[in-house]
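Example S7 (structure tokens).
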């Protein structure tokens, strides 16, 4: 007689079936989320994990995986959600009445709770009972039906076993059932994602906003704070970034998996705390205030060479100090705590807030802020890393004490002054000199509001040679540079360094981004053919 232990009939098949039901529900939820009809609990779970992670873990993930960490966490959130279905079903027990519906009810409750934690309220919560509840109920009903089918097939298998068949009808029936389950999961679950994405693309954004619209269509033209400089004949080598970054290519780092979608008509900015009078600005109030457009570079504190976490644009907005003057600054104020949608917060010193170049920015590169970059309003602060430039700004509170924001609680600096950096963007690998024998080297240098006085290049262990710097004003943008090199054939080590406008030399010692921003020179190895 065949050893029945070779064909386990319990946990393996049940786990497969429950996982299929979990995938189906996750797929339907994803389709509804694409249409803006529901939140997506697996991503809400990823957001919860991001915000609940201790400082050491968050720092380790960033330093180990860089900004791939968020993609890994998103995938992990989906996998955890799907894995919860077989775990719950096995814990409930397949022989219990309606284990699938019990699993579905727990899954729905968790999803609803995450939506509430993520900020859903009122009528939205009532709507989520339907949009999250119906897919979960469908998954539970199908799971119960599939488990009943498996149970019937197992009973048939037990009866047939006494006939000493080597291949038992129950085995074939179970495989056929599991195959049908897999096909149905792919059809409904993955099909829900595809259909939702297609309908979302056809119908446009879930909440219409003026994000990314031409500024001329929504606001009076602001006066530029400085004129865009002429290049004076400077020619950047191929491979050096353009002076200004397209909005689509502008770097982005957030603590949430999805950018908040905020309608400008329901948005407001509140300035409170130690002020003479609380100020509340609606979207139209902000647009009506005198505005400026100024060039500025933004850099992430996690920047490393070749990471791409630095970009430059034309910012349009209202000087923050103008709004603070309306509110009246109380005695003893030391810092401003800035709160963005989605639970993010950070703080800046009062002196930075009063810098006329610190903006309540609502535009970049001639459009209103794109959704991913903080629409309707964000901070732009010269000289400070991106963590301080809070996006989706909703509230500013003036306080007389220190404040530790999201990243400071995870061990990152509260000072956040930008370190001097200089990059070598081009060339790389094997190079061939031009007809004139020149190999153009090029890159960017940046030191926040301190500007760049000098960029130098070193070949192997030779002397430092000054590079040509692109003339520019103001000092808030990166400095592009080039160095025309005439090498002989061979292998070389090329290093760059910069000196800022105060005369301070870039720090040579190499340190990781955590906690104060990366330091050290960039070196590339080239082979000249």
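Recovered sequence:
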């Amino acid at each position: 007689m065949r050893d029945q232990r070779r064909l386990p009939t319990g946990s393996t098949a049940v786990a497969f079936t429950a996982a299929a039901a979990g995938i189906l529900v996750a797929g339907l939820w994803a389709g509804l989320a694409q249409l803006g009809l529901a939140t997506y609990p697996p991503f809400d779970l990823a957001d919860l994990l991001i915000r609940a992670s201790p400082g050491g873990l968050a720092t380790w993930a960033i330093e180990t995986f860089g900004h791939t960490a968020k993609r890994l966490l998103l995938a992990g959130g989906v996998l955890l959600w799907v894995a919860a279905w077989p775990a719950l079903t096995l814990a409930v027990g397949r022989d219990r009445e309606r284990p699938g519906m019990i699993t579905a009810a727990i899954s729905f409750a968790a999803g609803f709770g995450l939506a509430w934690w993520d900020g859903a309220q009122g009528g939205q919560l009532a709507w989520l009972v339907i949009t999250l509840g119906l897919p979960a109920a469908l998954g539970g009903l199908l799971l119960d039906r599939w488990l009943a089918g498996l149970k019937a097939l197992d009973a048939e298998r037990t009866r047939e076993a006494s006939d000493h068949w080597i291949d038992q009808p129950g085995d074939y029936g179970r495989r056929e059932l599991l195959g049908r389950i897999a096909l149905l999961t792919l059809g409904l679950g993955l099909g829900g994602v595809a259909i939702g994405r297609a309908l979302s693309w056809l119908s446009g954004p879930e909440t219409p906003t003026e994000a990314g619209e031409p500024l001329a269509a929504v606001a009076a033209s602001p006066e530029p704070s400085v004129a865009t400089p002429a290049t004076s004949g400077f020619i950047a080598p191929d491979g050096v970034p353009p002076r200004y970054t397209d909005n689509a290519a502008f770097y982005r780092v957030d603590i949430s998996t999805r950018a908040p979608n905020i309608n400008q008509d329901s948005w407001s900015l509140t300035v409170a705390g130690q002020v003479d009078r609380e100020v509340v600005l609606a979207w139209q109030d902000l647009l009506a205030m005198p505005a400026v457009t100024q060039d500025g570079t933004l850099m992430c504190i996690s920047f490393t060479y070749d990471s791409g976490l630095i970009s430059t644009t034309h910012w349009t907005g209202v000087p923050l100090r103008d709004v603070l003057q309306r509110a009246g600054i109380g005695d003893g104020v030391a810092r401003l705590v800035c709160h963005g949608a989605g639970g993010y917060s950070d703080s800046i010193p009062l002196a930075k807030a009063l810098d006329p170049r610190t903006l309540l920015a609502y535009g970049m590169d001639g459009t209103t802020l794109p959704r991913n970059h903080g629409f309707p309003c964000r901070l732009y602060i010269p000289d400070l890393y991106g963590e301080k430039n809070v996006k989706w700004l909703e509230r500013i509170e003036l306080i007389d004490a220190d404040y530790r924001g999201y990243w400071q609680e995870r061990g990152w600096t509260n000072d956040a002054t930008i370190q001097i950096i200089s990059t070598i963007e081009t060339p790389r690998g094997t190079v061939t000199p031009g007809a004139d024998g020149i190999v153009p080297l090029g890159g960017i240098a940046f030191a926040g509001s301190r500007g760049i006085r000098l960029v130098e290049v070193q070949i192997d262990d030779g002397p430092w040679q000054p590079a040509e710097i692109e003339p520019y004003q103001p000092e808030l943008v990166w400095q592009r540079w080039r160095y025309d090199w005439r090498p002989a054939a061979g292998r070389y080590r090329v290093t760059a360094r910069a000196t800022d406008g105060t005369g301070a030399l870039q720090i040579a010692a190499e340190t990781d981004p955590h906690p104060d921003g990366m330091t050290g020179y960039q070196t590339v190895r080239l082979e000249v053919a």
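Notes on this example. Residues 421-528 form a domain with the Immunoglobulin-like fold (CATH 2.60.40.650).
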